[in-house]
Automatic annotation (TrEMBL):
A single GO cellular-component term on record: vacuolar lumen
Entry annotated with the keyword rRNA-binding: no
Gene3D superfamilies, A to Z: Exo-inulinase, domain 1, Glycosyl hydrolase domain, family 43
Protein name stated in the entry: Acid beta-fructofuranosidase
Sequence segments annotated as region (Disordered): 158-177
Pathway annotation from the record: Glycan biosynthesis; sucrose metabolism
Domain Glycosyl hydrolase family 32 N-terminal, first and last residues per copy: 214-532
Length: 741
């Protein structure tokens, strides 16, 4: 059974032996550096260290709290009202019913007959008390989940100010009051009095969740990708980052570099919130590389009055390939919300593109009532701007457009295009992140430079109402043109779907998707294709191959591989012709999210793979196809990822994701799946439909993780050919001066 701990702060800190004696740490009171061990997090607040045990629920108590329930707490440490004069008292696990005494003003009065919490007299426990005074750690007051959780930055070069994070026992909204989309992880298990009930995660479970080859900072919160670019042999990735805690807030720009977009090196923070125009956040922005090689960075700042403004920054030393230092333009802001636009509805400038007149053009997301819009500005120097009449696109009912992206794709060639490309052989893509539902939608169509308008090819797939980049957890995405390899690369923020309690406990939240190439599907011409960048293949180690496996209706087939935690899986499936011909036609539509997931059986599905499963199938995540025969006799295929049985944990969002996937005549059903601990990215039919999901198993971890082929159809026999690679870790780490440039 999991017991919470009661802990507290003491001025003269020496050692600790709480929480079932799991760890003992010595600390000199003069040492102000923070320390991290496998079991404890240590931070510094003022002159006194703060210790937080990762397996405890922390409660704040006072004399007014009255009796303490029997067997409720694993350990209790208490200090009287004066932290310098008082003696600490420690109560061991499963102590009998306890109550608080009445404390006298003179805490060291030898005549006091006030009993200790265990009912014994002070004189009888003097030796024990003295030992406790000099030997026990008396920790933190009002820490974590029923009080305040204190997080301190210990990395060199990061801000040292300590921030507090509100309790996670009730839902806390983050971001909305600042004028951005909700950034709080939703809490899912609610008890009878409206409080969240958090699963008793242990260190082993939480440590396993950290990814091996997806980008994430060393600790704390991350969200939107910002200003990705390629410069002097290095890929640069900037991102929204909270250096102070594992929840949204205090947003600055993190910065990392890589030679291949896989093996990243963390650099110092690129830009911090140190000016009146970005004091409430250095928010999302984009990079533009001018023909002369100059880099322009435009970003949104939240001012001291929470007005969203656009700001200009540029490298302090263009000769530095790492672009470590950045200068903010002295006359920032360069753009304020125009008349008629809400002061919290004006953000996320795009990469600029050249017009035929030689001017640079950008678009910025906004809204008018419930109509999402993309405002357009022209500039010659990125310091002064002209607001163009009308909008690039406006779609009623879509709400605020965040993180607008605008770029060309070739109708003929496989390579990507520079953002300024235009012409008869070019289609354009407008992508928006909808503030209302936190999904990324795109539309393919034609851009009229003179009219400054975008017209979708299919109004049913207009901006914000049709196609999505990803049908799982994927938001605030941004592309850039990689001029070194002639490709357009897409990044997306993949947030958590567990509780903030778990995120704060493990000390980090969010990852970035594997960078994906994006291009027009030349076969359908109605959707984009997304695929992991080729550099991912360099992580491949040993492989196992299973050819022509037969999976009969209702069967589960174990795939015996070495490990199932870091995988690159490529699979093809065929349904037997007899079942296809026999299948009954129907006009019933199948939806992944509402039709029962992988447990819902049909004649032609579901079938696919069970990833991150344990041997007994108490936990598993199906990634699967579901085929139906429509009333017109044509097959319709859905591609889904089902988290409903992915974890025994109660504070995890276990949604079923997915959508329709186009399958052309003669094509086999195919999927590529990247498994990286708590993230599963799946790409169906060459990337026509993609799903990123977060998975938090409690049993199917480490060596207990398994992989299965399954077929839950009632009629179809499925033939599968599967190749599976073990993937190496990317060893993402801080940059050191000794690294070769």
């Amino acid at each position: 059974m999991h017991y919470p701990c009661l802990i507290l702060k003491h001025e003269f800190l020496r050692s600790c032996n709480l929480c079932s004696n799991r760890s003992r740490i010595q600390n000199d009171q003069n040492v102000k550096d923070s320390i991290i061990t496998s079991t404890w997090r240590v931070a510094t607040k003022g002159d006194y260290p703060t210790w937080v045990h990762s397996s405890c629920d922390f409660l704040s108590i006072s004399p007014e709290s009255g009796n303490l329930a029997l067997y409720k707490y694993s350990n209790v440490a208490m200090i009287l009202s004066n932290p310098i004069l008082s003696s600490p008292h420690f109560l061991s696990q499963n102590h009998p019913e306890m109550s608080f005494p009445s404390f006298s003003d003179n805490l060291h009065d030898s005549t006091s007959s006030t009993p200790l919490l265990n009912g014994s007299h002070p004189r009888k426990n003097m030796k024990r008390t003295l030992l406790i005074l000099f030997g026990l750690l008396l920790l933190v007051s009002m820490v974590a989940y029923n009080g305040l959780y204190t997080v301190s930055n210990i990395e060199q070069g990061e801000p040292s100010n300590t921030k507090t994070v509100p309790s996670t026992k009730s839902h806390v909204s983050r971001g909305v009051s600042n004028g951005v989309s909700e950034k709080s992880n939703r809490l899912f298990s609610i008890n009878s009095i409206g409080e969240s009930e958090n699963y008793p995660w242990n260190n082993s479970m939480l440590s396993w969740q950290r990814t091996a080859f997806h980008f994430q900072p060393e600790k704390n919160w991350m969200n939107d990708p910002n200003g990705p670019l390629y410069y002097k042999g290095w890929y640069h990735f900037f991102y929204q980052y909270n250096p102070n805690a594992a929840v949204w807030g205090d947003i600055v720009w993190g910065h990392s570099v890589s030679r291949d977009m896989i093996h990243w090196l963390h650099l110092p923070l690129a830009m911090v919130n140190d000016q009146w125009y970005d004091i409430n956040g250095v928010w999302t922005g984009s990079a533009t590389i001018l023909p002369n090689g100059q880099i322009i960075m435009l970003y949104t700042g939240s001012t001291n009055e929470s007005v969203q403004v656009q700001n200009l920054a540029y490298p302090a030393d263009p000769s530095d390939p790492l672009l470590v230092d950045w200068i903010k333009y002295p006359n920032n802001p360069v753009l304020f919300p125009p008349p008629g636009i809400g002061y919290k509805d004006f953000r996320d400038p795009t990469t600029a593109w050249l017009t035929s007149e030689g001017k640079w053009r950008i678009t910025i997301g906004s809204k008018l009532n419930k109509t999402g819009i993309a405002l357009v500005y022209d500039t010659e120097d990125f310091k002064t701007y002209e607001l163009k009449e009308g909008t690039l696109r406006a779609v009623a009912g879509t709400g605020m457009w965040e993180c607008v992206d605008f770029y060309p794709v070739s109708k003929m060639a496989e390579n990507g295009l520079d953002t300024s490309s235009n012409g008869a052989e070019v289609k354009h893509v407008v992508k928006v992140s909808l503030d209302d539902d936190r999904h990324d939608y795109y539309s393919i169509g034609n851009y009229d430079e003179k009219k400054i308008s975008f017209i979708p090819d299919d109004v049913k797939n207009d901006v914000g109402i049709g196609l999505r980049y990803d049908y799982g957890i994927f938001y605030a995405s941004k592309t850039f043109y990689d001029q070194s390899k002639g490709r357009r690369v897409l990044w997306g923020w993949i947030g958590e779907s567990d509780s903030e309690y778990a995120d704060i406990t493990k000390g980090w939240a969010s990852v970035q998707s594997i960078p994906r190439t994006v291009k027009l599907d030349k076969k359908t011409r109605s959707n984009l294709l997304q695929w992991p960048v080729a550099e991912v293949d360099t992580l491949r180690l040993r492989s196992d191959e299973f050819k022509n496996l037969k999976a009969k209706p209702g069967s589960v087939v174990s795939l015996n591989i070495e490990s199932a935690t870091q995988l690159d899986i490529v699979a093809e499936f065929e349904i037997n012709k007899e079942a296809l011909e026999k299948a009954t036609e129907s006009n019933v539509e199948y939806r992944c999210s509402t039709n029962g997931g992988a447990a819902k059986r049909g004649a032609l599905g579901p079938f696919g793979l069970l990833v991150l499963a344990d041997e007994g199938l108490s936990e598993y995540t199906p990634v699967y196809f579901y085929v139906i025969k429509g009333s017109d006799g044509h097959l319709k295929t859905s591609f889904c990822s089902d988290q409903s049985r992915s974890s025994q944990a109660t504070d995890v969002n276990k949604q079923i994701f997915g959508s329709f996937v186009p399958v052309l005549e003669g094509e086999k059903l195919s999927v590529r799946i990247l498994v990286d601990h708590s993230i599963v990215e799946s790409f169906a039919q060459g990337g026509r439909t993609c799903i990123a999901s977060r998975v938090y198993p409690t049993r199917a971890i480490y060596g207990a993780a398994r992989l299965f082929l399954f077929n839950n159809a009632t009629e179809a026999t499925v033939t599968a050919s599967i190749k599976i690679w073990q993937l190496n870790s990317a060893f993402i780490r801080p940059f050191h001066p000794g690294h070769k440039i």
